[in-house]
Fold this protein.
Amino acid sequence: MLSRRPDHSQGKSDNKDQIVLKEEWFRNITTQEGEFWKEIEEAEEFAEEKVQGAVERSEEGWRREGKVILWKERIYIPDSAMLHEEIITRHHDSELAGHPGYTKTHELTTRNYWWP
């Protein structure tokens, strides 16, 4: 046990009203608002027939949330090179991720998104 000098604080309530990590220090990469989310919603009409059928038949892992199709809780991205590139760029070149390389970029991307 450490002893304290009697003229020093005893540490009671020393963390009261302390915020260690401020909200503004965080950024949400996947958000359900903004232009990028609208592009994902609009791309739904380009979903492959097999995917549309899987959603309609409620096959395991597939579901629709509004205009967005999910596969195993990941956002399904139809065959859109522009959307694929945007997602990869957001995870590869983001200030939060730094420059993680192929393996880490793939892992970060597949946490939230899926495409064939």
About this structure: Residues 32-114 form one domain.
